[in-house]
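Tokens for chain A. Residues wanted.
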């Protein structure tokens, strides 16, 4: 169990490191949106690639930060049963939810999106269509999808390990999760 807990800790570190890099995407997006708005207003210049980059930055942040949000327990939770279940009950609820919902959904989304990323990467597909003249490679945004869900699945495994450790009495629930019980 100690080896699994070290593995869970390593996953936490990976997702924390990814989040430290990705959060700069929010700043880059704000600068891009501001520059794009100012160039359209004062210079009458607009770039299709700038519009494309705006939503790609945002999508990258959302997809790649989901695992870190889950790690910090800042995701949306509906804990109407929290005050009735107690610590062990919440550990069971989290473990069942991770195993029956989170991990299968993540696996399915990685399975479905990974081939699309590979095809876009190998073919050199770009975002240029009739509606857009942007030539940003499509594989960039298509790569964020499997990467984001893979990171989320890894974080789910780390959380499942912690739930099992809690149920075995090896480790108490993390403090932020105990607040669900203590705030009754």
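Reply:
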């Amino acid at each position: 169990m100690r080896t699994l807990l070290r593995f869970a800790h390593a996953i936490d570190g990976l997702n924390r490191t990814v989040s430290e890099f990705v959060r700069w995407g929010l700043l880059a997006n704000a600068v891009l949106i501001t520059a794009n708005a100012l160039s359209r207003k004062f210079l009458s210049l607009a770039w299709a690639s700038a519009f494309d980059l705006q939503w790609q930055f945002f999508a990258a942040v959302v997809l790649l930060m989901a695992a870190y949000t889950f790690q910090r327990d800042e995701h949306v939770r509906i804990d109407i049963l929290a005050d009735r279940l107690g610590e062990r009950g919440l550990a069971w609820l989290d473990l069942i939810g991770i195993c029956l919902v989170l991990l299968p959904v993540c696996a399915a989304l990685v399975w479905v999106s990974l081939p699309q990323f590979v095809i876009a990467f190998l073919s050199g597909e770009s975002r240029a269509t009739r509606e857009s003249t942007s030539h940003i490679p499509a594989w960039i945004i298509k790569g964020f999808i499997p990467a984001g869900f893979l990171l989320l699945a890894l974080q789910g495994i780390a959380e499942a390990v912690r739930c099992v450790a809690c149920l075995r009495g090896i480790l108490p629930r993390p403090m932020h999760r105990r607040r669900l019980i203590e705030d009754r």
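The chain is about 80% helix and 0% strand. The chain has a mean pLDDT of 84.
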